[in-house]
Automatic annotation (TrEMBL):
Pfam family, one: MarR
Domain of life of the source: Bacteria
Organism name: Corynebacterium tapiri
Start and end residues of each HTH marR-type domain: 4-139
Protein's name according to its UniProt entry: MarR family transcriptional regulator
GO molecular function, one term: DNA-binding transcription factor activity
GO biological process: response to stress
SMART domains: HTH_MARR
Amino acid sequence: MIPDSLLNSPLFQLERLRRRTRDAVEAALSTKDLGVRAYWTLSCLVEADAASQASLSEALGIDASDIVRLIDALEQRGWAKRERDPKDRRRQIVTASKKGRKAHAELLELVNAAELEALGEDNTKQLKHVRKLAKAVED
């Protein structure tokens, strides 16, 4: 039995929500032999057109060495490509390939379905509230 103090705790409830949705999304993505962090990285590349490895690391809160491995995996699938920044040869610019954009569109549907299933299809109103809360925290 969960104590009332935890049931009334936003932190505890958000953690439960995070665990439930992440588990569902991870399970869905595993059918494509992909993890959630690789999906997030691809999403950033598709929606931002191009990014540096450092900016991806910062935006996603993922260690720089892990971002390198995630991009390596996306490159191996033909979903991303790296190029040297002509203004700063030390910097790598990463972009999504055409194949990566197509894969992302399919993965997005998979992820959205997994999130809805995890939250319950009748919870679309609550999902809007969660997104609103997330935007408020972001600002």
